[in-house]
Amino acid sequence: MPTLPWILTCLVLLASPLPAPAAPARQACTGCNGAGGTSVSSGGTCGGRVEISVAAGSGECKWFLTDEPLLFECKEIAGCETTIVRSWIGLPPGSIVDFCIEVEDETLCLQKKTVVDVSGAGSSTRNGPVLVCTDSVAEQLTFQVAVESCGLAAEVTPTCSGCLGDF
After folding, report:
1. Is the pLDDT assigned to residue 10 strictly greater than 70?
2. Residues 90-122 pLDDT 10s
3. Residue 14: what pLDDT?
4. Does 106 map to a domain?
5. What's the pTM?
6. Which of 53, 37, 36, 31 is closest to 133 using CA atoms?
7. Residue 157 CB partners (closer than 8 Å, separation 6+)
8. Residue 145: pLDDT over 90
9. Among 26, 27, 83, which Cα is nearest to 52's?
10. Which of 166 and 24 is assigned the larger pLDDT?
11. Overall number of domains in the chain
12. Closest by alpha carbon to 71, among 133, 16, 20, 19?
């Protein structure tokens, strides 16, 4: 016949809540892949050319414990960093080159306009905003370069998608 201390020990162990599962041994989960692109516009009324290229690096995802008990979700911890290169050639000196971003049907342009120098050529490289790692198209940004007086415009919409994984 079992003794009272042994019975009490068994009851305490049975009444204790089960520990939450540990996070997966590998903390990173699949996803957050950046993709960019290049667009060119040439001709127009000036016979010049503008080009825009956007590189979107890959971000990072990690497993997180959700509000629901015992469930894990793969979520972003770092989005996709963007680098924007805009270049132009064969434009009339004094032409204005616009650098813009389209966000949810609104176009936002840099206030300091770039004026084409006597060579008719030039370029600009800058870091853009970090894109959110999502499967939704609502978070996308479209980067543009344009010379309105010449009827030239090129645009690229990079993506940052993924954070996939089930556990």
Report:
1. no
2. 999 999 999 999 888 888 999 999 999 999 999
3. 41
4. yes
5. 0.75
6. 31
7. 37, 140, 141, 142, 143
8. yes
9. 83
10. 166
11. 1
12. 20
- Strand residues in the chain grouped as ranges (E): 33-35, 37-43, 48-56, 60-65, 72-78, 82-89, 96-103, 106-109, 114-115, 122-127, 142-147, 152-156, 159-161
Separation between Cα atoms, residue 91 and residue 48, nearest integer Å? 5
| Residue 23 tokens, joined | 């996070």
Instruction: State the sign of the Cα–Cα–Cα–Cα dihedral 66, 70, 76, 78.
Output: positive
Backbone dihedral angles phi then psi of residue 10, each to the nearest 5 degrees: -65, -40
d(CA 144, CA 52): 7
Which residues span the domain enclosing 134? 22-161
For the four alpha carbons of 103, 124, 56 and 146, in that order, the dihedral sign comes to: positive
Give the tokens for residue 1. 């016949």
Inside any domain, residue 5: no
